[in-house]
């Protein structure tokens, strides 16, 4: 389908009784802060729980890391958003949570629950994964409490990201996000995951059709829905694109955007892949940062691809080189003459802009910095903490 000459869509959030309630409370001075974020103050809301990821290959544990889309997402948003953007994260963990001092949870502490921290076993296959084949089998071993509507802060946000991993973002919680946030971006994995019987070894993660879930009716009030190519058939791209913009990530091939009336392919960046975990999460956050910088959706997807590629080059939640981040921000400052977040405006534009190719070229140079840094840090003899899931098998468990 050829891109339409002009494409814009209304923002997700419509005034309704809850927002009115918040407004009334603000007027009465009951709640501080809030209000629709202006250009000088853009606050985002991330909803989804941190988790424990156990990486297995050939039946052996080859790595244990902090996981959960909220960890990857806040890591990128904190690093790549324009200076005036801030973030609130609503995440739940148990008393067994092992990563309270890791960067993302330390900056955005989770709520402590009596139930154990959500935990996944990711079983990597020995076969070289194709760009579209599932690269790992996931089992949910523990599930923390769901995140309820009442767990969300009682104020409004410029944008929200619904990024559950284990069904913790309930339909009513997503609905409240939509009411509180001017634009909501959703990871399909938060909506379509089902878990087989929690037998010994945990419940296998499978997918259900989005249309058969209570989330389907909320889609017209969602701005962007991101799905991996494995999840896309369950989302039903042709139906969903009539309700919101759908982004399908295609691993090392980059991504495609589908909106009502147009579509675009966005090219990937080079990466030395060591662990695919969190690529989709980092993509979504890079994409949201791009919108915050004022890019069109297709241009913002470049930033999504950039951070997706950066994520696969490290095991677990990546640490970004400050020089690389500075280079990226300089590129964006130069490309976007006046950052004026589309997230905060009245419409989104989807089209590739005239700066797209130049932006891709400049970011490609920054991506090469990541690859070079990775190669310099991990010579063949190095079996430190940046080795690949393959290399990890040679480490003592
Ligand atoms: N090997 C790679 N090389 C370059 N970029 C990659 C690679 N793998 C992933 N990416 C980037 O990350 C984005 C998301 O990757 P992918 O489609 O694998 O998501 P995903 O399956 O949801 O990932 P995960 O479930 O591991 O978080 C891709 O669209 C691409 O931009
Ligand atoms: O940490 C990971 C990551 O957040 C992935 O996106 C998700 O698919 C997994 O369930 C989770 O364990």
Automatic annotation (TrEMBL):
Reaction catalysis annotation: myo-inositol + ATP = 1D-myo-inositol 3-phosphate + ADP + H(+)
This protein's UniProt keywords: ATP-binding, Kinase, Nucleotide-binding, Transferase
Residue ranges constituting the Carbohydrate kinase PfkB domain according to the UniProt record: 246-319
EC primary class: transferase
The protein's Enzyme Commission number: 2.7.1.64
Entry superkingdom: Eukaryota
One Gene Ontology term of the molecular function aspect: ATP binding
Family assignment from sequence similarity: Belongs to the carbohydrate kinase PfkB family.
Organism in which the protein naturally occurs: Oryza glumipatula
BP-aspect Gene Ontology terms: myo-inositol hexakisphosphate biosynthetic process
Entry protein name: Inositol 3-kinase
């Amino acid at each position: 389908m050829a891109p339409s000459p002009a494409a814009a869509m209304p923002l997700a959030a419509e005034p309704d009784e809850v927002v009115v309630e918040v407004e009334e409370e603000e007027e009465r001075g009951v709640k501080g802060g809030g209000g629709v974020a202006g250009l000088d103050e853009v606050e985002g809301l991330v909803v989804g729980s941190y988790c424990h990821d156990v990486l297995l290959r050939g039946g052996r544990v080859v790595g244990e890391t902090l996981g959960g889309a909220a960890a990857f997402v806040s890591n990128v948003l904190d690093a790549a958003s324009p200076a005036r953007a801030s973030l609130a994260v609503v995440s739940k963990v148990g008393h067994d949570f092992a990563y309270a001092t890791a960067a993302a949870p330390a900056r955005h502490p989770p709520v402590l629950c009596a139930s154990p921290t959500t935990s996944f076993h990711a079983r990597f296959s020995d076969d070289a994964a194709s760009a579209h084949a599932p690269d790992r089998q996931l089992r949910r071993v523990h599930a923390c409490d769901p995140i309820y509507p009442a767990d969300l802060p009682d104020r409004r946000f410029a944008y929200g990201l619904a990024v559950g991993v284990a069904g913790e973002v309930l339909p009513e919680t997503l609905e409240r996000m939509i009411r509180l946030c001017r634009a909501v971006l959703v990871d399909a994995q938060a909506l379509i995951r089902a878990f087989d019987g929690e037998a010994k070894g945990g419940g296998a993660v499978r997918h259900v059709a989005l249309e058969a879930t209570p989330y389907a009716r909320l889609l017209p009030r969602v701005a962007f829905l991101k799905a991996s190519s494995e999840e896309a058939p369950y989302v039903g791209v042709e139906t969903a694109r009539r309700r919101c913009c759908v982004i399908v990530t295609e691993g090392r091939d980059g991504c495609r955007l589908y909106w009502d009336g147009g579509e675009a392919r966005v090219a990937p960046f080079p990466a030395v892949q060591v662990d695919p975990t969190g690529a989709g999460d980092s993509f979504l956050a890079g994409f949201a940062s791009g919108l915050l910088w004022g890019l069109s959706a297709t241009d913002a997807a470049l930033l999504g691809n950039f951070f997706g590629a950066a994520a696969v080059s490290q095991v677990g939640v990546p640490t970004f080189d400050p020089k690389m981040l500075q280079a990226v921000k300089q590129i964006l400052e130069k490309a976007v003459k006046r950052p004026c977040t589309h997230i905060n405006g009245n419409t989104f534009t989807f089209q590739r802009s005239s700066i797209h190719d130049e932006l891709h070229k400049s970011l490609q140079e920054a991506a090469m910095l990541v690859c070079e840094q990775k190669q310099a840090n991990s010579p063949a003899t190095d079996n430190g903490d940046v080795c690949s899931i393959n290399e990890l098998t040679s480490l003592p468990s």
